[in-house]
Specification:
The complex is a heterodimer of chains A (111) and B (144). Chain A has one domain: Winged helix-like DNA-binding domain superfamily/Winged helix DNA-binding domain (Arc Repressor Mutant, subunit A). Chain A is built from 5 helices and 3 strands, in the order ααβααββα. Chain A has helices spanning 3-8, 11-22, 27-37, 46-58, 81-105; strands at 24-26, 62-69, 72-79. Chain B has helices at residues 4-16, 22-40, 48-56, 61-75, 78-82, 87-106, 112-137. Classes of the chains: A alpha+beta (111), B mainly alpha (144).
């Protein structure tokens, strides 16, 4: 199965966790950080990242602020109060999902 | 750090391929500019144009147009506005308006002015109650 498909549903908790740990981040920084943390295993494309960031911003999970960096404008994202609650929920769901997968892939022998 | 002209070149390129939605283009310009800077850093011999071409290869036009479409949808979806009007809010509004209008039918005509005065006072107090906390929450710049 395509690796991208497997990771697709996990993007939101990963993103929320990153923003929780780093305070505020911008798009390119997020893609680099994920690549660095997963040693190149997971490469978030901007095609998946920006629509997700925009949706979470529209839903009030993230808030954005613009800042002038050199000769360009950069958009930083951070968690809202609602986003912090959402992060706890999303990460917990992902952890449960991982545990369930472990049970399926490595079932304990029954005697 | 890229110059103003180089940033403009990236922005013009994105506009030329159909990225007209400003918010999305601005974000994408920063993304590509950062990648161009990364391409330039380790190999000082590579010039801006070569680094830009290399970055462009990672962003197929078709994908960018598709992202713009999604970005526009997410930025403003009128259906989301309607979610505000849930059953509880509609019932609360009906109850408040009924409670406000009912006394006008129940009291005598000569007392209507008195009722109107109560409504005006109530509205003024409620408005001030909302305005003052709003004013306190605004961060004012410090005076020197």
């Amino acid at each position: 199965m395509n690796k991208k498909v497997l990771y697709k549903g996990c993007l939101e908790p990963i993103l929320l966790k990153l923003l929780h740990e780093n305070g505020r981040m911008y798009g390119y920084e997020i893609t680099r950080k994920v690549k660095e943390l997963t040693v190149g295993e997971l490469n978030i494309t901007e095609g998946a990242l920006y629509p997700l960031l925009h949706r979470l911003e529209a839903d009030g999970v993230l808030e954005a602020e613009m800042e002038n960096i050199g000769n360009r404008v950069r958009k930083y994202y951070s968690l809202t109060q609602n986003g912090r609650k959402e992060k706890v929920k999303a990460v917990s769901e992902l952890e449960n999902f991982a545990k369930t997968l472990q049970l399926l892939l490595n079932p304990k022998p029954s005697f | 750090m890229l110059t103003k002209g180089q940033i403009q070149q990236i922005d013009t390129y994105l506009e030329s391929i159909g990225i007209e939605y400003f918010d999305f283009r601005q974000e994408l310009t920063d993304h590509i500019a950062e990648e161009v800077e990364q391409n330039l850093q380790p190999r000082k011999s590579v010039d801006f144009n070569a680094a830009f071409e290399e970055a462009k290869a990672h962003y197929p036009t078709k994908d960018l147009i598709e992202q713009q479409f999604i970005a526009k949808l997410d930025a403003y979806n009128p259906l989301k506005e309607w979610k505000y009007f849930n059953g509880k809010r509609i019932l609360n509004s009906i109850a408040v308006y009924t409670a406000a209008i009912l006394p006008a039918f129940l009291i005598s005509e000569k007392n209507l002015n008195f009722l109107l005065l109560i409504y005006v006072l109530f509205s003024a107090i409620e408005s001030l109650r909302m305005i003052f906390p709003f004013g306190r929450n605004i961060n004012r710049p410090e005076r020197n």
